[in-house]
């Protein structure tokens, strides 16, 4: 580094202007004498003039040194302020907004987040519900979990794979008792299918079973509701067969028999779970690292969380 661009060189000069003794300067700055003397001489050489008259004891400042000393005091005072500000910033809590699908299970979320907080005590997460990627781009959240892979032609987003999930066809015992259980996918045309329709959830346009795919054409009786709560309520009240209800949202209903899986193996196209942040935030190391960690955590959790119930009812990737 060029001596005059080195803060240490100016600190040696400033301290020597006070001590007028290079040995004393070395002691107070915790430098060895040779290093302190060399730094001062290299600074003088770089400046093109002497800072001290060494022929006298103690040293005597030159006229040039006296002229620049006030500026050096100001420089090092600013450096002290910067150091304090950096310490303040480093100790300041980091607040991040994370939006999750409203029907995502929270059962293991808080223990997982508590472990992350132990490792990163200054990292705070505030949870939001049901933002989509446009909400993210509009600044309404900092990180978003999506049940789809958004288009990213302009590269405005950084996307992390968070695994995938499935739904099952679900109806209440009341509905089945009144309307019967469909024996095949074609038989669904004789039933009311309840689907979701909102910004964050891609509209279901087909049903799948392994390599089979059936389009939900106008031959099917389709009823669109806006949110998971409405779909679940309609299914529990026996108004139709729910297509878009997540297992996370109604696992207790399935276990307790309030909702019955129908046509084992048939399901809407899988949800491609995605964590997204804005491209401009990719340089924000704490935020980027958390988004990547959270995506990996969810990707590992999905098979363990829902694998057994999917297997039980014949839903396979």
From TrEMBL:
Keywords: DNA-binding, Transcription, Transcription regulation. GO terms for molecular function: DNA-binding transcription factor activity; sequence-specific DNA binding. GO terms for biological process: DNA-templated transcription. Residues 10-62 form the HTH lysR-type domain. SUPFAM superfamilies: Periplasmic binding protein-like II, Winged helix' DNA-binding domain. It holds the Pfam family HTH_1. Gene3D superfamilies: 3.40.190.290, Winged helix-like DNA-binding domain superfamily/Winged helix DNA-binding domain. PANTHER family: HTH-TYPE TRANSCRIPTIONAL ACTIVATOR TTDR-RELATED (PTHR30537:SF5), HTH-TYPE TRANSCRIPTIONAL REGULATOR (PTHR30537). Belongs to the LysR transcriptional regulatory family. This is LysR family transcriptional regulator. It comes from Turicimonas muris.
């Amino acid at each position: 580094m060029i001596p005059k661009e080195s803060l240490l060189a100016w600190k040696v000069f400033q301290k020597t202007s006070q001590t007028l003794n290079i040995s004393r300067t070395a002691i107070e700055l915790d430098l060895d004498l040779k290093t302190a003397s060399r730094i001062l001489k290299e600074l003088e050489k770089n400046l093109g003039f002497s800072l001290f008259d060494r022929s006298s004891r103690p040293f005597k400042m030159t006229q040039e040194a006296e002229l620049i000393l006030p500026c050096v005091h100001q420089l090092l005072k600013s450096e002290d302020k910067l150091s304090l500000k950096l310490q303040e910033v480093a100790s300041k809590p980091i607040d991040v907004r994370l939006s999750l699908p409203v029907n995502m299970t929270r059962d293991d979320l808080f223990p997982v987040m508590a472990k992350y907080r132990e490792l990163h005590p200054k990292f705070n997460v505030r949870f939001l519900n049901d933002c989509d990627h446009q909400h993210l781009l509009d600044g309404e959240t900092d990180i978003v979990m999506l049940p789809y892979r958004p288009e990213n032609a302009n590269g405005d987003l950084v996307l992390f794979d968070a695994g995938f999930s499935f739904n099952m066809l679900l109806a209440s015992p009341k509905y089945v008792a009144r309307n019967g259980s469909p024996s095949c996918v074609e038989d669904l045309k004789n039933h009311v299918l309840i689907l979701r329709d909102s910004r964050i959830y891609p509209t279901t346009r087909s049903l799948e079973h392994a390599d089979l795919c059936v389009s939900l054409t106008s031959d099917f009786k389709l009823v669109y509701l806006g949110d998971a709560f409405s779909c679940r309520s309609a299914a529990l009240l026996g108004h139709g067969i729910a297509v878009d209800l997540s297992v996370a949202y109604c696992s207790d209903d399935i276990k307790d028999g309030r909702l019955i899986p129908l046509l084992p193996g048939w399901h809407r196209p899988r949800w491609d779970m995605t964590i997204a942040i804005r491209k401009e935030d990719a340089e924000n190391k704490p935020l980027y690292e958390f988004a990547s960690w959270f995506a990996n955590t969810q990707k590992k959790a999905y098979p363990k969380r829902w694998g057994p119930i999917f297997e039980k009812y014949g839903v396979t990737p």
